[in-house]
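Workshop exercise sheet. Pairs work together: one partner reads the sequence aloud, the other fills in the structure field after running the prediction. Swap roles for the next sheet.
Pair: D.N. / O.F.
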Amino acid sequence: MKEKKPMSKNRFKKPLYIVLIVLAALVLLAGIVVKIGFAYINSHLRTENENGEGPGVADSSAVEKTVPALSGNVMNILICGVDYEDDRSYGKVSGAKTDLIMLVQLDIKANKATFLQIPRDTYIDDATLTPDHKINGVYAYGPDKENPIVNLEKLINDRFKLPVDKYVFLDMEGFKALIDTLVYNLGGLEVTLPYDISTTDETTGKTDVLEAGTHYVDGATAEAIVRWRHYDQTQDIKRLETQQYFYAAMFKVFKSCPLSDWIKVLPVLAQYAYTDFTAEELPSLLATFNKLGAADITVIRAPGGPVNGGSHYGLNAEKLAPILNQYFRPYSDAVDADELKLDTPYAYTMGENEAIIRTMGDVQEKANGAGG
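Structure field:
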């Protein structure tokens, strides 16, 4: 009888080698895909448009950033929505007005976020920065024409005494496209309105009233919601309140969808938004926000009221200073009201609004009850 040869150990090793090679190839392929994805998003992230115009680069030497010792704890993000209406030209810096201005502080250490809503008509005393003395003109009319975002960032530095680390800048055409993409990919956006607003069909020109209550919205309707301001003499406050309900709806969608779905939307955001975030930073930013609950996000409407016959909004520095100290300087020294350069020469003859400080949970609860 023929003696059997012992089985070679290589017979067991070869399949293992094959598995390892396949795994290595898959890891390499995944790495290539990720790099291609980042390269694609990076190629679409913009600080200017094809005409060489746009927010530009916020030079760290010109703009005050969070000091290195605190940069791992907090990040301040300036979010601007540009309203091109009437004879304003899309994409042109000269025609751009930042009619949505928010400063968002992400408190990484405490797992919190705070949104400061700054009214578009906020009075600014320097006519060289904004001829009509409204904060929404500082972007276009400030001294830095090459990087106009610096004009607004430096104003936040100078008047509010707060650093600005990053910006996100979105015009209304991009905003509509982004909302339509979210609705298509993430299953719809349901917004509660505290007040009636009007919407106009861009095709037919027909105007309809969107009554207070809950509605499923697309990009065009979302634009009407965040831009509408024809309420009454308290238009700035009611506009900001309505925007809070919109943010609450967005947050609800954000928390109800897996992070992977939102990552799919990043290329769309990259295509339509201007920002100095990099593609590598965006997933981490989304992941950080994804950890936040509704009670972890505070939304603040700046205290003050209509002045100068209602054409401007005057900030009350005495009331704003302690709010900024509590919510935006958790790890740094307090700043007194007289250091904030936010005085207005006009009296609050039409009444004054107290600061409204709500968590996102508060806003959602009001939306559920269709309250104002």
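Discussion prompt: Residues 27-41, 86-91 have pLDDT under 50 and may be disordered. What would you look at next?
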